[in-house]
Amino acid sequence: MTTLHANPVAGSPIAALGEGPTWDPARGVVRWVDIDGGQWWEADVSAGSAGSAVIGAAGARVIASVDTTLGAAVHAERGGGLLARSRDLAYVAPGGEIAAVFHVIPDGVSSRLNDGACDPQGRYLVGSTALDDRKGQERLWRLEHDGTLTVLASDVVLSNGLAWSPDGSVMYHCDSFAHTVTAFDYGEGASAQGRGEVLVDLGDGIPDGLCVSADGDLWVAVWGQGRVVRFGPDGSEKGEVVAGVPLTTSCAFFGEALTTLVVTSARGDGGEAHAGGLFTVETDTVGMATTPWRPDAALRGRA
Asked: How much is the average pLDDT of 146-154?
């Protein structure tokens, strides 16, 4: 098993709960959220010296801020983006104004939205986590191109990372408090079919965010273990990326060659240097670019 060591990114802001990194090749920037801080960040992250990375001279900047938690965010194909706020999804138009709001968490349900990602067709999937003692009642939704919502799962404990196989036929979903990564058929109709098959059971490990590389391998951030574990598409463990902080939260490939992995983290209360910042490592594989959100013309017309 190969072990790689990630280095902190010089100039990275420290997030209370950094999450959901994405790569926008059109703009050449990495974006990520601070869930607890309610902020969406972006930065030009480039190679530094001795295998480290740095944030460009312009620095990191907040491109959206909300007065709730911000579970995830993704850029839209024609500008702007989609924000997974505490209970709804908000379409931020290219000019920065909120153009549409899609209500997701039903009234009276003590949950909030958590991680999300776009499927290969550019539709946004987002799951929830309970804010009370309920177990196994969280949902995974898909925002369709026309703005309607489809419930794909309703028995989740804590919905977290989402990713797809290179051919788009399989969806991977982390249920953190079930300690599993489940594979679902994502058939011709691009719908998650059936209950899925547990691909990875981490025992007492907590899978958080994940991404998939072009060779079909899964890269799963494990909360509390300070690492990203690389699994083959058959669930076999192939390697790991070790960070110097315990609360690794998610990861994504970025850069022109898509060979660099960026890892987000949470600050926690352990006082470790760089906890809550970004980390990067060069890999021996090629990643897959983040799929942007692709709303239909009617939704874009609201902007």
From this structure: 93
pTM: 0.97
Mean pLDDT of 295-299: 75
Helical segments of the chain, H only: 297-300
Percent pLDDT > 70 in the chain is 95
Tens-place pLDDT, residues 105-130: 999 999 999 999 999 999 999 999 99
Tracing tokens 């990564």 back to the chain, one arrives at: 181
Give the DSSP H or E segment for 129.
strand 124-130
Share of the chain above pLDDT 90, in %: 90
Please, are residues 224 and 206 in contact by the beta-carbon 8 Å criterion?
A: yes
For 32-65, letters b (16+ CB in 10 Å) and e give: bbbbebbbbbbbebeeeeeeebbbeeeebeebbe
* CATH number of the domain to which 208 belongs: 2.120.10.30
Look up the domain containing 259 and give its range. 2-300
Count of structural domains within the chain: 1
Q: Return the sign of the alpha-carbon dihedral for residues 188, 189, 194, 198.
A: positive
